[in-house]
Amino acid sequence: MSLAFIIITTTTTVVIITIIIIITVIITTTIIIIIIIIINHLHHQSSSPSSSIIFIVVAIIIIIIINHLHLHLHHHHDHHHHHRHHRHHHQHHQQQPHHHHHHHHHYHYHHHHEHHHHPSTSSSSSSSSS
Hints:
3 helices; about 95% helix; Histidine-rich glycoprotein-like; mainly alpha; rod-shaped; transmembrane; transmembrane helix
């Protein structure tokens, strides 16, 4: 059971990493082609300021995409590296609904705390009226 789970998890991780690498290569290749086109366009129309702005925006987008993908890849690899199969299986089964419930419960508690403060004045006012 646990061995099969390790194999499935490892295979899934390898597949995800491979997909991310392929996507990164495709995006990088596309971006390089776009940069070449923009540079060529910039050389043809060096007087146009909009081309320079487009180049800067594209460069920023490239940096963000590469950083995000690298961070995601590193995080996924790091998560796989710190692997506790028994506990991970239990966490994976319960994590999403529990996490959502915990977040909702935290908000509800905060709202309830504020709401609890209001009837205190209302109760005092009612007592005073009586």
